[in-house]
Each structure stands twice: as C-alpha cells, then as structure tokens.
Amino acid sequence: MKNSPFRFVRILALCAAAFLLSAPAWAQKGLHVEPLFDGSYEKNPKAVTVDVRGKRLKPYDLTLFRSITVHGSPHDADRMAAAALADGQGAVNSEVVKRGKALVAGYYQLPPRDRKGQGPNRFVLFRRLEEGAATLIYLEGETELEKLIRLFVKPKK
Amino acid sequence: MKSTDRTHKPAASAAEERAHRLLRRYYDGETTRAEERELAAFLFSPQADGGAYEADRAVLAYALTGRRLHEPAAAPQPRRIALRRPLRRVAAAAAVVLLLAGGAGGYRLWLQGRDYFSVSIHGEKYTRESVLEEQVRAALHNVFEPAPTPEEQLAIVFGSLDEAASPEGEANDVSFTKEIEKL
After folding, report:
1. What ipTM was reported for this prediction?
2. What's the pLDDT score for residue A68?
3. Ramachandran angles phi, psi of A134, nearest 5°
4. Of B80, B109, B117, the CB nearest to A24
5. Under an 8 A CB cutoff, do B146 and A55 touch?
6. For the residues B84-97, what does the mean pLDDT come to?
7. 3-state helix, strand, coil in chain B (%, to 5)
8. In the prediction, which pLDDT does A102 show?
C-alpha cells in the first residue's frame, strides 16, 4: 500500500466521497434567502432572529425553523421581499399577495434540494408588516404548504 | 584465523600465485568479500583440481554457506512509478480542499441532527425556552395573521369592486383573503 502508485488516487476518491456524503447539509444553499440567514441579523438592533432545529419541531413535521423580523428598516424589508420573490420562481406550490409587482405576502413550497425528489421540502414564508417592517421564515420538513397553513392560521369565527 | 604452515606446491601460474596470496589473507582474516569471491572462483575452477586445495575448498565452502544462511537477503527494490511533482501537488491540494469541505458539511449535518435553538432580539442573545416560544409564535403570527394595514384595507375594498375586470395580479388581495377564510 505504502508504495502503491495509486495512493493519491485512493485518497482523492475517499475525500470526494466524504464531500458528497455531506452534500445534504448544504440544502439551503442555492436559495436567495440563504445569505439572509448567515447570522448577520443576529447583531442587528432592528431585527429579531430565531433558529430552531431538532425534536421541538417534530410535532409539526418540521426539522428546521428560521425567521427574521425587522422593524424600521425599509432596505432590509425590501431585501427580504426580493429574496422571497426570487426563490418563489421555483415553487411547486404557493399563495401570493402582491400589490402591483411588490410582494406583500408570499408562502412558497420549494422542492427538495435532491434532484431525485428525496429529502425534506423547503418553505419560504414572507409578509410585509407596517412600513419598513417584514418577517421572513424559512422552514424544512416532511410536510406540505396546505398543512402548514392549516396548522398555523387560526380559523375565523 | 592465522595462516597455517600449509604447504602448497609452488605456484605454477600467476593465478595460482594470486590464489596463494589470497589464501594467506583469508586465513589471517583480512580478505574482503570481493577477494573471497575471487578466491572461491579459483578454488572451484579446474585449475584447483588435484587435491592440493581440498581443505581450503572445504573451509571456504563452509564459511560461505554459513554466511548465506545467516545473512538476510536484500529486499528487492520495488519499482516506483512516481507521479510528476506538479500532479502530486495538485492532487494533494484537491484532497485537502475536499476533506475540509466534507468536514464542514459533516459538521453541519451533525448540527442539523442535534436539538438546537438560538434567539436574538435587537442584537441581544437569549437562551430561555419561554423567549424562544414567544418569538416563534410572534413570527408565525406576523406571517399568517397580520392585521390589515390601512392601505391593504383600501386595496381590499377597491379590489373587490374591480375583481371582475382586473388582471389576476391586482385581484390577489381579495382572492388570498377568501382562501384564508375557507380554512
């Protein structure tokens, strides 16, 4: 083995396999909302951020919950709206409210990152609040958009 | 082993003279391996036939056999097919990059499998579960149950009046509200 001429090829193949096996970890990669959840809003005095994963989300068939809410920051609200709108282009299911071309609210279900359709579904939820305020939520889980809406929207009396 | 008072016939040839000299050195323990090989070549050649070198042949044969039995054979050098230096460096760099990326991805996967939460409010981090629940509820409320802004209320009013004639995009406010009410 020590003097095998293919030693480097074997090491390279092992490293490539390690990289490919970890590919599911990058499921959020490639979405326009991804850069918004890089942690930069955690220190923003105008933002509230939440990041949850694990068994707390199991009752909702979710594995990941991330949200950002901003107040008094029109630039950030517009940035979130633009990212949600862009990601919504690839949605398999959606509920959208627009005023002209501006996104007021959007609920998007995106396909799993895996091209074979395996893995959790991804959801981008966005809502403009008052001027300069908005909330963006990113979810992952084995659920559907209708189920989420039924789960979280209180029926009107 | 000191040279014995062995008597050999006077050397008949230069080769024999050489052999006699080597034999003296051999018994004095001064010969090199090459000289011993030269001596062995002579003693086992037809020139040394005749019995005069019988004892010398036996001694040398015994010593050479013993050496062969006790000295390990030199390991054959394996053929090495060396990659060109630049290719080895590129392969090494690629392996490091892939390993680092794979390690980072593996860490993220491990992190994803763990229970984890993080809440920050206006730049301050909070670790209490009650704060987490409150903020998750608030985010979901913001997205799913907002009170209509005055602009939205006007849009809903005027949207309902124009619903029949307007393009699909402008009537969304009203249709969306109706969808939510169905739930």
Report:
1. 0.79
2. 97
3. -165, 160
4. B109
5. no
6. 76
7. 60, 5, 35
8. 82
